[in-house]
Automatic annotation (TrEMBL), chains A, B:
Matching Gene3D superfamilies: ATP-grasp fold, A domain (3.30.1490.20), ATP-grasp fold, B domain (3.30.470.20), NAD(P)-binding Rossmann-like Domain (3.40.50.720), Succinyl-CoA synthetase domains (3.40.50.261)
One MF term in the entry's GO annotations: acetate-CoA ligase (ADP-forming) activity
Similarity annotation: In the N-terminal section; belongs to the acetate CoA ligase alpha subunit family.
Pfam families from the UniProt entry: ATP-grasp_5 (PF13549), CoA_binding_2 (PF13380), Ligase_CoA_2 (PF19045), Succ_CoA_lig (PF13607)
All copies of domain ATP-grasp, residue ranges: 493-529
Keywords tagged on the record: ATP-binding, Ligase, Nucleotide-binding, Transferase
SUPFAM superfamilies associated with the record: Glutathione synthetase ATP-binding domain-like, NAD(P)-binding Rossmann-fold domains, Succinyl-CoA synthetase domains
InterPro entries: AcCoA-synth-alpha, Acyl-CoA_Synth/Transferase, ATP-grasp, ATP_grasp_subdomain_1, CoA-bd, Ligase_CoA_dom, NAD(P)-bd_dom_sf, Succ_CoA_lig_flav_dom
The protein's name in its UniProt record: Acetyltransferase
Length: 700, 700
């Protein structure tokens, strides 16, 4: 029994709101259960009927004499919470609410949904929906939905946050010959969400690949944790819509969901090994390929073609997708030379020429499949006069059995004349495409996933010594007492320091004498900056003085700054002047954090300084589950990394120190969810160590 | 008569190498001419036959008693030049050589090809091929090829540099229901190339859109000139393969063509209005859409759907492709509100809900088509239980007739249940897709092309006053006499100055006294740099001194530089020391040029300075046909543009002066093809004027 208990194979199902009238949802539900060959008992529930589709009907679920393991509800929304209560009393374990009229319709619906959730939680009922199409499992089999059709049997689990999309894909899949292990319409995701179904499918023996259409992820933190584990077991492919600004608007009006920024999704998917499909076509191209192909041992692709053009197109795609063209062994080349016509191209891509019959493809593929330098093969057939699609397909099917560990993908470029050959391939479990590019894209998916799977699991989870939470809390307390949300520079520096981040010493002085005292303590030269939470452009107001190397200068600068600011902004609330030690210049980097609604702290790092928004050389990772290696990878994505490693003869910077500072920043933001924004810009990175100069922290 | 005379509709065709044996190319050619319904006379030529397929055969083309306007040659390569000679004597105007064994096979074949070209040029014969499949025209009709099939009649002209690709696409098109005006297999492009066929198709009344599969462009300069004109008349869509490094290797082994760098192709296509397809699917999605749809007046797309999911997916695609979601007028919203159910989404994307029948689509589409804020419409139908694909298709077809100027594209997401509706749409000339994204991609193509067509034609062509060619020639002459290819800094500066580019004064001094004299003339402070063509890292050797503000310092620095360099590199050939005026700092830009094999000078500009290779903030244009507006657009593509316009309170830089400097650089590189590389880095751009500091020029 899987993580969802008997959700996919209940021994009995009640249909609450069952109907005798064809065309009504309550009728479709009963018919679908019957037609799908569902082996359990079915109980229609309708107080007005005695019998529906030859089954005895009951006035309520409580009147059913036997155990009811699942109930499907199709009555108007207003009545659903009461029915759920009855189900709870009856001991129903699984509830599918297809009725609409909940959260998606506004305040009143939201209240109904909350009551429904409350009842289900109270009784420990698994709830799918509301506002969904239902669920289908081809292996039980059970059609607990009001769709017109039932899917072909297969090993793809498809989860869809859009019911109509699920229906359309089901219709399309029947023509395209694509089978599913289960199809689930997620609806409003009031209790069960994609996270639960992904986790279950990862354990399900009938499922080989998990494909999802999602419009949002509600519990980002749990998603990261659970899906990271699931992808270690099976490929998870997600098409996430609502990526654009306009798209996000549409998503929120459609499902009432607050869509997170696409960047966070992009990073979240990558960090937990999800393969992101860019288009609907890609979602299913990938799903089919994963369902049929083994994972390639490496990135080395061989291409066999009977026409130069598509061979070049495929080669381009291989390079564009960061795969590699395989280099054959000498033996392979010699064998190909011996077997193929003299005009044939022996090097990858192999051109068996336009007059190639099945036997010539067989010869070439046999040698290439055997080559240890080849990890996967794409063979292309153009509909030439000599082409023998059926014989070729048969040869490939036979040969592939000898090398089941190498993915083989077909491209049959043509129409009717190749259709039968393509059908043979598909039936034998070899994906067959019309054009080369999608085949290569699918291979890329396999390869990306293999790499992810092979990455050693790291469980660092940002545990550092010397994290002084008490100091941070004390500073935040003072800031809140002062009715502020933005920390002063000296406060922010103290917070960073409490978390072990090396900062340029900075302290607040309230008098010229105190300023001098601080300068003496931290050492010259120093910078003086007016300390006022409201003043953003301090330099413009004469509120900053740099390079002060003598006590007299510090004393004088303090007075002048105060005068300048009072003259120009007499109303400004001024806390004093901050005295900061001037640090030697290092490589200017930025470390930042913005908090994503779904996924929590999104950590940024990259080239810092005043041009940071212009150059935009910044990369991102989510703090949840961040590891040392991920931080390193994040740095390596920036152009600044070249500087850090030592550019044009300058010495390399202390990258480990920077990685630790980023990790500690992430830890700080995880430990204090009240930090809504954080910027360290610049942080100077030296050949040894680093120094954070200007820190901005906003709390909530 | 088009640009290619009677090439597509000769009154008579001789098949040289005609054969009686089915399966032979020489037999297919005769059969295809007969079967295509070709209305002209056909003369098989074969010395061994009396009659082929009921037609009298002739021993040679010279024996044919009447005029022969076209000859198709299918004899072994070695005999082709002699046959071409006979054709010339006979007055044949058009020659199609399908035989292989020419340039693509090596040296011997190349010689044969050269002889063939020579003969055709001598007699003024239009030559297609060799090594091609032939040509088809559905309107003449004529099938002058050895393909198995003949295309459906249509208005897409398809040109293919790969013969097998053409055959495969033809086969596929018959199943997909796509028609062509003509299909041309370009082969080795010995004389006629894509440029000629594009120019002809642009004038051809039967052709509405030109689609090409290309592996290279041989005459880049002519391509730019001719295709720029063609795209003003008709859309030209090109899939260019061999974009990758590995792909380019395959291309060159396949056709013997030297593939240019992909960047140059990318820029060339953009500059002359070609729509570049990224994949084979896209090539035909675009071709079909252009063949059927009007150009939209703007970028505002309306989406109508019966399911939220695909609506969001389409909205995402609209934003991702830089189109806009239309904002309906108040009237439209009110009318939709009055006509649609209360749960329907009235704002774009419009959700007519899963239970929408044809009538509801009709209502929504009628209002939206009438809305002046809508430029194009994508309507999506998911295969729901209530969907009425046929009625909906009929409604759309009717409504579209009332608004023929607005593109309407269909997305029928489902299988068999929607097939008949999709067929109706396709027949009525409304493109119909299975998934939303390709429909939006096709709309983007229409929109990009419309923008290009609407751009006013600019004929500046970089004509500037005060271009002193004589000075440039004199400097190059001295450099060559000196057995160098790299100019000294002072020489390069003089070249730039001769072309009206403002440079920081720099002169070569051969003695300390001369250095002081130069400094006195150009003004202090100055920089001294050792002048030696072999020394790359001058600073490292102590070969540079900056900020010299007194004659004594200049004198001393000269001596020290010479001593340093002689000590460290006693063998170096040293010309002296260059004295350059130190300029005030401006915005650091780079202007550069690299010469592309196919398309000539490729001009770069962007953020300059020592981090130029790190930041890579550079954009490119080809010098041929470059205009003032294009240079402006090129600058606007860089992040540096933000700096130039005045960043964070700094004054804007003199952008017109920079544009002129870039234009003059392009002019210089066009006028002097011997300049193989040029770098001006940095050029300081000031609020008024600019100054080029460091100029490197390499000639050949």
């Amino acid at each position: 029994m899987g993580l969802l208990g008997n959700f996919y194979d209940p021994s009995s199902v009640a249909v609450i709101g069952a109907s005798k009238t064809p065309g009504k949802v309550g009728h479709s539900l009963v018919k679908n259960l019957l037609n799908s060959g569902y082996p359990g008992r079915i109980y229609p529930v309708n107080p007005k009927e005695k019998e529906i589709e030859g089954l005895k009907a009951y006035p309520s679920v409580l009147d059913i004499p036997e155990k009811v393991e699942m109930a499907i509800v199709a009555i108007p929304a207003a009545g659903v919470p009461a029915v759920a209560e009855e189900c709870g009393k009856k001991g129903v374990e699984n509830l599918i609410v297809v009725s609409a009229g909940f959260k998606e319709t506004g305040k009143e619906g939201l209240d109904l949904e909350k009551r429904l959730i409350h009842t289900c939680k109270h009784y420990g009922i698994r709830l799918l929906g509301p506002n969904c199409v239902g669920m289908m499992d081809t292996h039980t089999p059970i059609n607990a939905s009001f769709t017109k059709n039932f899917p072909l049997k297969g090993d793809i689990a498809f989860l869809s946050q859009s019911g109509a999309t699920l229906i359309a894909i089901l219709d399309w899949s029947l023509s395209a010959g694509i089978g599913f292990s289960k199809m689930v319409s997620l609806g409003n995701k009031a209790l069960l969400s994609e996270i639960d179904f992904i986790a279950e499918a990862a354990e399900d023996p009938y499922t080989r690949v998990i494909a999802c259409y999602l419009e949002d992820v509600v519990d980002g933190e749990r998603f990261l944790k659970v899906v990271r584990e699931a992808t270690r077991k099976k490929p998870v492919i997600i098409l996430k819509s609502g990526t654009s600004q306009a798209g996000a608007r549409a998503a929120s009006s459609h499902t009432g969901a607050l869509a997170g920024s696409d960047l966070a999704y992009e990073i979240a998917f990558r960090q937990c090994g999800v393969i992101r499909a860019r288009t609907m076509t890609e979602l299913f191209d990938l799903a089919i390929t994963f369902s049929r192909c083994p994972l390639p041992a490496g990135k080395r692709v061989a291409i066999v073609t009977n026409a130069g053009g598509p061979g070049i197109v495929a080669t381009d795609a291989v390079e564009a997708k960061a795969l590699h063209m395989a280099r054959f062994t000498k033996e392979t080349i010699e064998e190909l030379r011996a077997g193929l016509p003299v005009e044939a191209a022996l090097y990858n891509p192999v051109d068996v020429l336009g007059d190639a019959r099945g036997s010539r493809y067989r010869l070439a593929l046999e040698k290439i499949l055997a080559d240890p330098n080849v990890d996967s093969i794409v063979f292309i057939m153009c509909a030439t006069a000599m082409a023998e699609p059926i014989e070729t397909a048969q040869a490939v099917i036979e040969l592939h059995k000898q090398y089941p560990q190498k993915p083989v993908l077909g491209v049959f470029l043509g129409g009717e004349s190749l259709a039968e050959g393509a059908r043979l391939l598909t039936e034998a479990g070899i994906p067959c495409f019309t054009f080369p590019e999608p085949a290569i894209e699918a291979l890329r998916g396999l390869s990306t996933y293999r790499e992810y799977r092979e990455m050693p699991k790291e469980d660092l989870d940002l545990n550092y010594p010397n994290l002084d939470k008490k100091t941070v809390k004390a500073i935040f307390y003072d800031v809140l007492r002062d009715k502020r949300l933005v920390l002063l520079g000296s406060e922010a520096a103290a917070v960073a320091q409490a978390y072990g981040i090396s900062v340029a010493p900075i302290y607040l002085a309230t008098s010229p004498e105190e300023a001098v005292e601080i300068a003496q303590k931290i050492g010259y030269p120093v910078v003086l900056k007016v300390a006022s939470p409201k003043i953003l452009h301090k330099t413009d107001l004469g509120g900053v003085r740099v390079g002060l190397d003598l006590p007299e200068k510090v004393h004088k600068a303090f007075i002048e700054i105060m005068e300048n600011v009072y003259r120009l902004l007499p109303q400004a609330e001024i806390y004093g002047v901050e005295v900061q030690k001037m640090m030697p210049k290092g490589i200017e980097m930025i470390i930042g954090m913005t908090r994503d609604v779904q996924f929590g702290p999104l950590i940024a790092c990259g080239l810092g300084g005043i041009y940071v928004n212009l150059i935009k050389d910044v990369s991102f990772r989510l703090a949840h589950g961040l590891t040392y290696k991920e931080i390193e990878a994040m740095l390596a994505e920036t152009k600044a990394y070249t500087l850090l490693r030592g550019y044009r003869g300058s010495p390399p910077a202390d990258i480990p120190a920077l990685i630790e500072a980023i990790g500690r920043t992430a830890r700080l933001c995880l430990d204090f969810p009240e930090i809504v924004e954080l910027d360290i810009n610049p942080v100077f990175v030296y050949p040894e160590g680093l120094s954070a100069l200007d820190i901005k922290i906003t709390i909530s």
